[in-house]
Specification:
Layout: H1 3-17, H2 22-31, H3 34-37, H4 40-47, H5 52-65, H6 68-75, H7 77-89, H8 91-99, H9 118-128, H10 147-169, H11 175-200, E1 207-213, H12 215-218, E2 228-236, H13 242-261, E3 272-273, E4 286-287, H14 289-298, H15 302-308, E5 312-316, H16 318-333, H17 341-354, H18 372-386, H19 398-407, H20 413-437, H21 448-457, H22 464-486, H23 489-495, H24 507-517, H25 522-533, H26 538-556, H27 560-574, H28 578-586, H29 588-600, H30 602-610, H31 629-642, H32 647-670, H33 676-706, E6 712-718, H34 720-723, E7 733-741, H35 747-766, E8 776-777, E9 790-792, H36 793-802, H37 806-812, E10 816-820, H38 822-836, H39 844-860, H40 879-893, H41 905-914, H42 920-944, H43 955-964, H44 972-995
EC number: 2.7.7.89, 2.7.7.42
Protein name: Bifunctional glutamine synthetase adenylyltransferase/adenylyl-removing enzyme
Region (Adenylyl transferase): 499-998
Length: 998
């Protein structure tokens, strides 16, 4: 075999063994010398490394600097395994050991596998910077030029990091041991950095300074490379002025931070981050203990107490640091009792998730879905909720806390095991990512070479890329699932008789958790949960799967208790229906919408309870779209046709379909699918077709009773909000009844028949039934309640010729055909056109009369005791203050401006702007107030289940209405202030436009 063939054969063999570049590997092996080429143990070690090529390259460079390493490796198998393993994982540590070749000796002998106690680490790093470890407050020499000391600190630190990484790479230490040792090493480095800072601050002795480790440093679960979160607390020495002492302590803290982060010829350590201090970066860097405690008692936010869960004295004056930790501890463990605690924590988690780059979200092992933060967040939330009464949960580190939660029954054993496995795996991946370049990163790379190194570093040799990716995705998915359910599932175990020997959560603990979530009747909630989940049926099993997530959605809704009660009631009616639970289990959107609906709206809950099969519409966006009026009319007509001989049954079917459409509109409005104008149109058109269907049934019944066709034609004219397509959920149907006797018929007989139809129509739509009534209100007819219920077209003509008043012309601006005889409706519209659109406009006398009438209405019709600032209809800046100016403009100008001939308020305002009769800014103010007031009226009905025009004074009801309008849990006052501001502006515009007030 010639030399070239031998080289190709050797290179090919090395490639098959795991080297990416067989030829390069052969050259590097040759460079190590003949003994290395034939050293099968060395070759086996290299082949077993995470990245054989990287390990061989770094070893080759190290041997060039210190050839003795090769002999030492042959003599010490432990050294060989540790050195090759760490070189195959970390290019940065390879660079370090090449730069400082003596450091490979740290991996020799028994000392290399022994953990160095924290006090010895502290002494070693202090000695490295020239400070005496025996001194209470060691000082590094050379304050004028701290760079040499800083460089020495980095070299010593990385030497210890090299030794730990080697033990980690060879499996000699657990994850918990690695993170604890990294935290102790960071504490020692902070102590040495503080010694460097003392040399720069002559007045350092004036203050006691304690460094409090936060986050992973405080919890002793630090990464290889991470910002080290700290808080500084200081006290003056005896006889020293506090201001002077704090100035000295601040300089010390700043010097310590510089000593860690400054770039030197040996690089930097890591950033020291003090942003978790009171007031964050805007607050003073150093405070006294009393100042800290005052802040936390009076001003601290929820997230600050969550952060303090990890606080630990790590450097400086440890006694002072422990005083600080003891002082904040009780506040931390009582934080869950604060108002809106859970909502605040959830909001903080959402904020963190929102800040993750979209391009990295699926590769982020820390902040992405199913990442480390999901696990830490869930564990911390459980700790804070239950740690007040259970001292065993007061652990800083995640895995010990999770273990304590499991032992206490707060987390199921299987769930805790799965979560611990996911957390351990993700932390190992995090370490492998960071070790490579000693850079702070949490993003899984896309490069195949990097993925291969990570997979092999985890022991996956057969298919490192594929196996790693599969396991990572599986753990992330499981972590996300458990994150979503963990807070809720244990309380199900407290009330459901589940198989297995898993520890149960006590009823008292479950009740405490429900209270923390916002349930005001936790005992009642537990009863509902028990009823839903007890037993061994498939229904109970699916409910046990659904409820953990749904309880959270109920908690996010304004009224969690009502939501859970409504869910139980609906489930009792539909639980045996196969599609129901399958829909909620498989269609997340349907379950979430249902939870929001039940926890927000008593009105919608009532609709759903009487027609539970309507849950099916929640699973599809398309199902929430308002159905065309023609389609609804056809469906309702078919109902009437099916029950042609029984008017009551026919209208019952009509009202049942109307109930379904009311629910569709309510859901669409609550989830923001349609706006308030679209809600008004949908409800008005639904009322139109319902009136038409009921009218058909009434006509058929009256005709049957009379023994033949009616002697008159009959039509229904929409008025008021129905006429303006502005109905709300609680609106009556304002109408007028018009008839026209059939040619040749007796007028009295025709009028009697028309009365019979009108009365039957009103009765059918208002009779007691499970479905919401549609009350017909004819009070806007000529002469009001004193006038005839029904008039003929000719009677209307005669009345309007002789007796019509300005208010009737104003009311007729809303008139439109609604149901019945369309030709007769058109004739009526032609009849009233000159009244509502006067050819010569409206005279001054009529304007004065309308203004006087509005002022009287405000004075007399506002309910006794009602706050005029909070009444959405008649109050200042409310609906009337918008509608009356619009109508006054219409009466004066619609004869000349066809666009003003509309029954809709907002369309009239827009047309007025187009015609130059109203400024765009005034229209914007009025329209905003009209929309806001209309939304509030709808929200009152949806939340309370009964209509109301005033924003309630009750604080809880205001909160529920504010939440239904999209305000946050603490936004009740903001809602009221927004309403007052909006209506105050509208009142000023209204007075100017309507009364001519400057």
């Amino acid at each position: 075999m010639n030399a070239e063939s031998r080289i190709q054969t050797t290179a090919g063999r090395l490639a098959r063994l795991g080297f990416a570049d067989g030829a390069q590997a052969e050259r590097l092996l040759d460079g190590l010398g003949p003994e290395a080429v034939g050293d099968l143990d060395l070759l086996a070690a290299l082949v077993g490394a995470a990245d054989p090529d990287l390990a061989l390259t770094s070893l080759n460079r190290l041997a060039e600097r210190d050839p003795s390493v090769l002999g030492a490796m042959r003599a010490d198998p432990g050294l060989r395994g540790r050195l090759v393993s760490v070189l195959g994982l970390s290019a940065a540590l390879g660079e370090h050991v090449v730069r400082h070749p003596g450091h490979w000796k740290l991996l020799e002998g028994e000392a290399a596998v022994q953990r160095m106690p924290a006090r010895e680490m502290r002494a070693e790093l202090l000695e490295a910077v020239g400070a005496d470890p025996a001194e209470p407050e060691p000082v590094a020499p050379g304050g004028d030029d701290p760079v040499p000391a800083m460089s020495a600190l980095r070299v010593a630190y990385r030497g210890r990091l090299l030794q730990l990484a080697a033990r980690d790479a060879t499996g000699a230490v657990s994850l918990a041991q690695v993170t604890a040792e990294l935290s102790d090493l960071a504490g020692a480095a902070l102590e040495a950095a503080l010694a460097i800072a003392r040399a720069e601050v002559p007045e350092a002795a004036d203050a006691r300074l304690a460094v409090i480790g936060m986050g992973k440093c405080g919890a002793r679960e630090l990464n290889y490379i991470s910002d080290v979160d700290v808080i500084f607390v200081a006290e003056p020495r005896e006889g020293v002025d506090e201001t002077k002492a704090l100035q000295a302590a601040t300089r010390l803290a700043q010097g310590m931070m510089r000593a860690c982060s400054t770039s030197t010829p040996e690089g930097s350590l890591w950033e020291v981050d003090a942003a978790l201090r009171p007031e964050g970066k805007a607050g003073p860097l150093v405070r006294t203990l009393a100042s800290h405690l005052t802040y936390y008692r009076r001003w601290a936010k929820t997230w600050e107490f969550q952060a303090l869960l990890k606080a630990r004295a790590v450097a400086g004056d440890i006694g002072l640091g422990e005083e600080y930790v003891a002082g904040v501890n009780e506040m931390v463990w009582h934080a869950a009792a604060r108002d809106h605690f859970v909502e605040d924590v959830q909001a903080m988690r959402r904020k963190v998730e929102a800040n993750v780059r979209a391009s990295e979200a699926d590769r982020q092992i820390k902040l992405g879905p199913g990442g480390l933060r999901d696990i830490e967040f869930a564990v911390q939330l459980l700790q804070l909720v239950h740690g007040r009464s259970d001292g065993l949960l007061r652990r800083r580190a995640t895995l010990p806390a999770l273990n304590a939660l499991s032992r206490g029954g707060y987390v199921g054993r299987d769930d805790a095991k799965a979560l611990a496995e996911a957390y351990t795996f993700l932390r190992q991946v995090e370490h492998l990512l960071q070790l490579h370049r000693l850079r702070r990163t949490h993003v899984v790379p896309q490069n195949v070479t990097d993925l291969r190194r990570i997979g092999r570093g985890l022991g996956m040799m057969a298919d490192p890329v594929g196996e790693f990716t599969t396991r990572w995705k599986r753990h992330a998915m499981e972590a996300r699932r458990l994150h979503e359910k963990l807070f809720y599932r244990p309380l199900l175990q407290a009330v459901a008789r589940l198989p297995g020997d898993e520890a149960r959560l006590s009823a008292a603990a479950a009740s405490a958790r429900l209270s923390a979530l916002g349930y005001t009747d936790p005992e009642g909630a537990l009863r509902h949960i028990a009823a839903l989940t007890s037993g061994v049926s498939r229904r109970a099993a699916i409910q046990r799967t659904l409820l953990p997530v749904m309880l959270g959605w109920f908690a996010d809704a304004p009224d969690p208790d009502s939501g859970l009660l409504g869910f139980r009631q609906v489930s009792d009616k539909l639980g045996a229906t196969p599609w129901y639970l399958r829909l909620l289990r498989d269609e997340t959107a349907a379950a979430e919408r249902m939870a929001r609906l039940l926890g927000t709206s008593r009105y919608a809950t009532g609709l759903l309870l009487h027609a539970p099969d309507a849950v099916a519409m929640l699973g599809s966006e398309a199902e929430l779209a308002a159905r065309p009026k023609e389609a609804l009319a056809g469906e309702l007509a078919a109902c009437v046709q099916r029950h042609a001989e029984d008017a009551e049954k026919a209208v019952d079917a009509v009202r049942a379909l109307r109930r379904r459409e009311l629910l569709r509109t309510a859901v669409a409005g609550l989830v923001g699918r349609i706006d308030i104008e679209e809600v008004g149109q949908a409800l008005s058109e639904l009322n139109d077709v319902s009136i038409q269907a009921a009218l058909d049934a009434a006509v058929h019944k009256v005709s049957g009773q009379r023994g033949g066709p009616l002697p008159t034609r009959f039509t229904v004219i929409a008025m008021g909000r129905l006429g303006g397509y502005e109905c709300s959920y609680g609106s009556d149907a304002d109408v007028m009844f018009v008839h026209a006797p059939v040619e040749g018929s007796d007028e009295k007989e025709a009028t009697d028949a028309a009365y019979a139809v009108a009365n039957e129509l009103r009765r059918l739509l208002a009779r007691p039934a499970p479905d919401p009534p549609l009350l017909i209100d004819p009070d806007l007819r000529p002469e009001g309640r004193q006038g005839p219920l029904v008039r003929s077209l000719s009677s209307y003509a005669a009345y309007y010729r002789r007796w019509s008043s300005p208010w009737e012309s104003q009311a007729l601006l809303r008139a439109r055909y609604s149901a019945g005889d369309a030709e007769l409706g058109a004739a009526f519209m032609d009849l009233i056109a000159p009244l509502r659109y006067p050819p010569d406009g409206i005279g001054e006398a009529a304007v004065r009369e309308i203004r006087r009438l509005k002022a009287r209405m405000e004075a007399e019709r506002l309910p006794r005791g009602a706050d005029p600032l909070m009444h959405t209809k008649l109050g200042r800046g409310g609906l009337a203050d918008v509608e009356w100016p619009a109508q006054l403009i219409q009466l004066g100008h619609a004869h000349a401006v066809p666009e003003l001939r509309t029954t809709r308020t907002l369309d009239a305002l827009r047309a007025a702007v187009g015609a130059g009769l109203l400024s765009a800014s005034d229209e914007e103010v009025l329209a905003e107030a009209w929309r806001f007031a209309s939304q509030v009226r709808d929200a009152i009905m949806l939340v309370r289940g009964r209509a109301g025009d005033s924003i309630p004074a009750d604080v809880r009801e205001r909160m529920l209405i504010a939440r239904a309008l999209g305000y946050p849990p603490d936004g009740s006052e903001d809602f009221v202030e927004d309403y007052r501001r909006t209506t105050r502006r509208a009142r000023l515009v209204s007075e100017r436009v309507f009364y001519g007030v400057a």
